[in-house]
Write a structure and sequence with these properties.
single chain, alpha/beta, seven-stranded parallel sheet, six-stranded parallel sheet, 13 helices
Length: 384
């Protein structure tokens, strides 16, 4: 690495976060700085290589709480940070944030940015909530700068006393990566092609869920709401795109409508499946910022999302999509049936969604916000 350039280290737990959100940031940063990415390459092995113009270091960060493995990882990070003497550390996701901020502070990295992207404890209770929330409080305390990916997430973290309001910022209108408006756009040819390949009729109404198939993403509520709605709208199909890491699909029962539920475990072309759909549904219980919602918006389709922090920043209720009370199956079903029945409403919401993304969430805008923020952080004499 060139000694004349400042050294930036980004720490993440898995390649998935980088692949879907942060590759453009790292490519831009590499034009100005010596950039190192540290992550667990054993996770998400189905992904293609990251193919980035930077140094990538594989380190064993366990996804779940594992005291011995976490302690081993912490010491490995301290050794790495002391050896390489980075000028700036950037962490994303909770586990990487906690271990990274502890190691970074101990190793003397003066400038440390953590990016909050949704809190795993937000919908939990009891000891588990307390423990995970405490970990986030430690991360926030040790970080010299803190970002949230949406205004409502910032408000949530302040309200929950994770951090003081004057210590956390949101860049622009939120989001972490924005949307490539050329890649994500209406595509009638792909619509026909994808539907044909999956055996979905061209005149069907298709609901798309795109993301990890886990309970926190609301897939159980979606399955129930779809099962009820399809009784009234036999032309309604459900497309599930994303990894089933915990075998949740085995617990979903669609009865005789199972043939109208299509599954794609992984794709490098999310824009194609968005183009093939009529509406997106993201009934999450927690979300930092619904990136897939603005990707859908760029493709010209409206979204239905739960009325929680993060999603309520990505959907303008009644203008770019519909919000419903989180975990309320009946409310979700009503939103689905409303959009299935009203073609003009669906079209209007989709058009407004596209305009909103063009105005606030292009990837050039969002990535530039982050690059400027990082550049300013490195150029200031103090991290605070």
């Amino acid at each position: 690495m060139s000694s004349s350039k400042k050294k930036v280290c980004m720490l993440a737990a898995t390649p998935l976060t980088i692949h879907f959100f942060l590759k453009p940031h790292l490519i831009e940063l590499a034009k100005e700085y010596d950039v190192t990415l540290v992550l667990n390459l054993q996770n998400d092995s189905y992904l293609p290589p990251l193919d980035l113009p930077i140094e990538i270091i594989d380190i064993s960060i366990a996804r779940k709480i594992s005291p011995l493995a976490d302690l081993t990882c912490l010491f490995s990070l301290i050794r790495l940070f002391k050896k390489n003497k980075y000028d700036l550390l950037i962490t994303v996701v909770p586990k990487a944030g906690l271990l990274g901020m502890l190691a970074g502070a101990f190793a003397g990295i003066a400038k440390r940015i953590h990016i909050f992207q949704g809190e795993v404890w937000a919908n939990r209770s009891g000891f588990g909530r307390w423990l995970l929330k405490t970990c986030d409080q430690i991360t926030a305390t040790l970080a010299t700068k803190v970002l949230a990916v949406s205004a409502s997430e910032k408000d949530f973290l302040v309200r929950e006393v994770v951090i003081n309001t004057n210590r956390i910022e949101v860049l622009g209108k939120g989001s972490i990566g924005g949307v490539d408006l050329k890649r994500f756009a209406p595509n009638p040819e792909k619509r026909v092609e994808i539907r044909s390949s999956l055996g979905i009729p061209q005149d069907a109404i298709v609901i798309l869920f795109m993301g990890r198939l886990v309970a926190d993403k609301g897939i159980y509520e979606l399955a129930q709401a779809y099962f009820q709605a399809v009784h009234h709208h036999p032309n309604l199909w459900l497309l599930l795109v994303g990894p089933d890491e915990e075998g949740e699909l085995n617990n979903l029962d669609f009865g005789r409508f199972v043939t109208q539920v299509k599954r794609v475990p992984y794709t490098t072309e999310p824009e194609s499946y968005l183009a093939a759909s009529d509406l997106l549904c993201l009934p999450s219980h927690r979300e930092g910022f619904g990136v897939v919602i603005i990707e859908a918006a760029a493709t010209g389709i409206p979204a239905i999302g739960s009325k929680i922090y993060g999603i309520s920043d990505a959907i303008i209720d009644g203008q770019t999509g519909l919000l419903f009370e989180c975990a309320n199956v009946q409310a979700l079903q009503a939103c689905i049936e409303r959009l299935v029945s009203d073609v003009e409403l669906r079209k209007m919401l989709g058009n407004q969604a596209r305009l909103n993304v063009e105005k606030h969430f292009s990837n050039a805008q969002v990535v530039n916000h982050y690059i400027e923020y990082i550049r300013n952080t490195l150029n200031t004499t103090s991290a605070h």
